[in-house]
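Recap from last week: sequence in, structure out.
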Amino acid sequence: MATTAPGRNVSVIWFSLLLALILMIIPLPETLRFARPEWLGMFLIYWAMALPQRVSIGVAWFVGILMDALSGTTLGVHAFAYALVVFLVARFHLQLRQYPLWQQALTILSLVLIVQLILLLASSMTHQWKVWMPAVTSTVVWPLVYALLRKTRRAFQVS
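Predicted structure tokens:
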């Protein structure tokens, strides 16, 4: 079996981020809209934790600008929130990788809450309690996202 050179299959990262963008803009019923997990944030966190040399603040900023454009929010809000979260993950990625999955999930709660609070401050959202819903659902979904992206990274030998 031929081995792939380092840095190959980076397109898998971009494809997964595109998938996360699609998951973020799929219309949901009104009752589920505020419980949507922060797919894009979780995917960025995973890749920044696993391959910080490939997914950096610049990638987070670019994808955040795309998210702002697709969701119709103020330009730069998602970009700032994602860039801040990826900065924190990149700063502590060695420690985060060592955490058990349940501790990583609690870290996801904190990081997604940061994203949601930034979005809340930039908008005129009147139901502040709904800021917790994406953070909680992202925490619950994190072990599945982690397992799926880890398996994908290994299967496609993304480095």
